[in-house]
Every structure is written in C-alpha cells, then in structure tokens.
Amino acid sequence: MTLTASTTDSFTDGLRIAVIGGGITGLAAAHHLAMANADLQVTLFESSRRLGGIIRTEEADEFLMELGPDSFITNKPGGIQLCEELGFADQLISTDTRYRKSLVLSRGRPRAVPDGFMLMSPEKPLAILTTPILSLKGRLRLLGEYFVRSAGAQDDESLASFVRRRFGAETLDRLVQPLVGGIYTSDPEKLSLRATLPRFLDMEQQHGGIIRAVLAASSSKQKQASRIAEAGARYGLFATPSGGLSQLVSAIEQKLAGCPGFTLRLNSPVQNLQQDTQQDQTAWLLETFAGRQTFDAVIVTLPTHAAARLLSDDSFADLRQELQQVEYASSALVISGHQLSDFRDRMEAFGMVVPAVENREILAVSYASRKFPNRAPAGHILLRTFVGGAMQPELLDREDDEILDSVERELQGIYGLHRAPLFAEVIRYQRAMPQYHVGHTSRVLRIEDQLKKFSGLQLAGSSYYGVGIPDSISSGRSAAETILQSLAADEADPPR
Ligand SMILES: Cc1cc2nc3c(=O)[nH]c(=O)nc-3n(C[C@H](O)[C@H](O)[C@H](O)COP(=O)(O)OP(=O)(O)OC[C@H]3O[C@@H](n4cnc5c(N)ncnc54)[C@H](O)[C@@H]3O)c2cc1C
Which of 175, 226, 280, 305 reaches 20 to 30 Å from 104, CA-CA? Predict the structure, then answer.
C-alpha cells in the first residue's frame, strides 16, 4: 500500500511517539510529528531543565551572547524552511555587510582570505596570485591544479590527501586546514571528503579538477548568481534570529505547547530503551527516573555515544558497536567583551581562523558583534574564541583560568589587546563535535541497515548526515517522517 501524507494522518491517530533529546534535532522532529497529525501523542524527553541543547543565548549589560552556535547557513533548506513554517522568518537577520570579510592568521598577522576562495575552490585567480598568505611557489602550485590529472573514481579520501594532491601542501596548511577546521574542528588527515565536502570529489571526477569545474560552471553560474542574489537579498548566506538562536527554540516550544497531544518532560534523562517483546505489535519501553512508559515509536536525537548507552540490550549489540565507533572532538568557547579602543587592530571582519602551523593556542576568533548587529553596546566588541578541537585536545585539560589567560595572551599578541576584558567566560563542549572520519558515509549506511531490524526506532542528529543546524533539523524531520510512514503502514496492514 502506498501512503501519502493525508493517509498517514488517519492511520496514526492516537499513536504514542517518544522523542529523546530536546536540542534542535529533537525539537524539529517533535514539531514535524505534531504538525503532521494533531491526534498523535508526542512526548519529548530532555535530561536538562531547558530546551535547545547546544543552542543557548544569554544577555547581560547590552551584550547578546551566543554560548553555542551563532547562526545557520541558508543554502541548505532545513533552517529557513522551519522558520518559515513557524511564521518566524521575519525575525531573521543577515550578517552585517560592512564587515563581510574573513581572515586567516598568517605568520602572526591576520590577513584576508583571498577573494572568491570558497573553502578550496579558487574563483578569482588574480586574488590567488596576489595573496601574501602563500609563497610565490605555493600560489603557482595552487593555480597549477588546473594541470593536475584526476585520480579517477575515489570512494573516499581524507581532506589532507585530496588538497595536497591537487593544490599542494602549502595551500592545505595555510588556507584549507584552518577554513575547514573552523567548521569541523577536525584533523584534516582523518576528515572524510565524501562525508563533508563531496562536491569536490565530484568536481574532480566530472571535470578533471576543481579549477576546471569552476571555469565550466562560470557561465551557468551567472544565472545561478542572480538566483542566489534574490535569495541572498532576503536572508544572506548566514542567518540568525535578531534576538539570538534561543528565540528559534522558544518559537518551536511555544508552537508545541499549543498542540493538545504534545507533552514536554524536562529534567527527564532517558536511561534505557528496549523493545517490548510481550506485545503482538512492536512497542518500545522507555525508562526514566519516573518509571517505565510504553511507546509505539521512538526517535533518539542524542550524540551516538549517548544513544549507544541507552541501547544496552543485547539485541542492539551490532548497532551499538557502530554507534560507538563515531569519534567526537571536544572544544571550549571563550566569550569575552571588550572596549574597541582596547585593541590596536580595527577588528573589521567577521572573524579569523588559525592554521595549525601557526602553533597558537586558539583555533579561531569570531568577531560576534561585527558579524551580526546589536550584539554589543556602541564602542564595544564581543568575541568568541575557540580552543581545543581534534588537533589540540590537551588544551582542554587546563583549568578555566588557564584557558582564559592563554586566550588573553593570544589576543594581546595578535590584535594588540592592551587591557583585560570587561568580562570573559569559558563554555566547554565535551565530545560535542562529531568527527566525520574517512569511512563515515559507509558507517552511516551500516547504521541505517542495522536500524531496519528495529521497526519504530529512528536515530537523528548531527552525527550522521551533516554537522550544522540545518542538517540537524532536516535529520530530525526526516526521522519523524520515516516513523509516520512506518507506523501508518503497520496500522494499514498490521504485521501477523
Ligand atoms: C561550540 C559549537 C558551535 C557550533 N556552531 C554552529 C554554528 O554556528 N552553526 C551551525 O549550524 N552549527 C553549529 N554547531 C553545530 C550545532 O550546534 C549542532 O548541529 C546542533 O545544535 C545539534 O543539535 P542536536 O539537537 O542534534 O544536539 P544537542 O544540541 O546536543 O541536543 C541533545 C539534547 O539531548 C539531551 N540529552 C542528552 N542525553 C539525554 C538523555 N539520556 N535523555 C534525554 N535527553 C538527553 C541534551 O541535554 C541535549 O539537550 C556548533 C556546535 C558546537 C559544539
């Protein structure tokens, strides 16, 4: 039987679905379920006393601080689509065009990333030829990518291997590693190109190289550019709510609160999950401190290491083993407020990434109040400095005070900061950043295969198909849709 959105409605009336984890993935999943059928009984379990997970916005003394992510990319549909469904899109703001520039630390000095250099695709050869970030030899080697032969069909390859092979070691060390590292906080020797930036593998296979692909795309690109310009005029490449990302969390929470079938359980860590074998139809037993509850389906939106802990029953042994193999990096974020006049540098950019070869104790600095308006009072600046990640895990063994001292020293050395910050705070993220190592795509396929054994169980979140907010939202929605389809199919044609 083929089920459509309208047929799933009547078949899923009154069914009980648990969503575990109240971060953006769990919220997106719960929202999708509640909007699909108001008669579903959806319960969201969150271990802490607040929703949002990694997303957290705070305000103090006219500083508006993002303690986790600060925005989301708009060229992936998840974030914008959800905001539009919530009637929330008019709250979104774009980056401040006055400071739209990214910097990379180069031999101790912040310098502009060459114009048109998008992660590793050089759109403007002249900008490459004149950048002081690379030596003359490095620049010629980068542009010489045009002549490098394709390696043929590659299933997967590490970022480092690909960039070294195509553009040379200097481009890897001085540009691509910090730019990509800024997103994934990963070791480029291990990072899977297939799982993170597959378009570059495809460009090589289809056009023989990246520069060749860029040239081939340039004519059709002009048409595309006008389309992007239209979309960009509405949102820009990065968007965020004017009052910070927690506003988005509140908007979802409010919408869910108005759904009669929705129940929110805060302070409710789920401890165990198992199939109920006593019943004819598949049912799921979920255990919290409050006791056991039965559900028809469950969506788990936790990092894979936490999901594996819930699935302790022997029947999950193979699935658990795959989940435990996904590695995570930890990082710390130092949020600091300053007077602008306390810097020698003018700080006129969105931020700076730091190559590992610079041997610094910071990964990147986001100039938060330059990127988005109304994040700091006039004459002040709010910075978000990232520390640790997969390349420098040892820095997180330090006490908070040591991290604050080291960040202040780095800001002094790089920007000529000559006074202590007005305030500074360390926020730690333990094992929060999934590492998509070579082979990640195959592992996720194996996880999907394992899941097929357990009707009514779905996994979602940033550990599988993309690490950002739009990916997490799409993953939550897609898990919810899969559950709706499978429950409706079971109701329409019950298993004997
Ligand atoms: C420092 C940092 C900066 C980032 N910056 C950006 C950015 O600028 N833009 C962007 O797009 N992405 C960014 N990301 C990624 C983005 O934050 C994530 O993709 C997204 O927030 C993941 O949401 P989630 O719901 O999957 O997980 P989480 O936010 O981790 O939510 C999981 C939830 O589950 C709860 N939980 C855990 N165990 C249990 C249990 N046993 N029972 C019940 N509940 C439980 C937790 O308390 C938590 O609330 C950043 C990530 C980090 C770490």
Answer: 226
pLDDT at 6: 46
- Give the pLDDT band of residue 221 (cuts 50, 70, 90): low
Assigned CATH topology for domain 57-99+328-435:
Polyamine Oxidase; Chain A, domain 2 (3.90.660)
Is any ligand 1 atom within 6 A of the Cβ of residue 300? no
Torsion sign, CA atoms 488, 21, 55, 327: negative
The CA distance from 97 to 78, in Å, is 24
pLDDT score, position 3:
46
Residue range(s) of every CATH 3.50.50.60 domain in the chain? 5-53+247-326+437-492
Confidence of residue 153 (pLDDT cuts 50, 70, 90): confident
| Amino acid of residue 439 | G
CA dihedral 356, 327, 268, 261 (to 10 degrees): 100
Burial 20-35 (b: 16+ CB within 10 A, else e): bbbbbbbbbbbbbbbb
CATH 3.50.50.60 for domain 5-53+247-326+437-492: yes
Q: What is the reported pLDDT for 359?
A: 97
- Closest alpha carbon to 297 in 271, 320, 276: 276
232 CB-near residues (< 8 Å, 6+ apart): none
Q: How confident is the model at residue 133 (pLDDT cuts 50, 70, 90)?
A: very high
Residue from 73, 196, 249, 462 to probe ligand 1 pocket by mutation (most atoms less than 8 Å from CB): 462
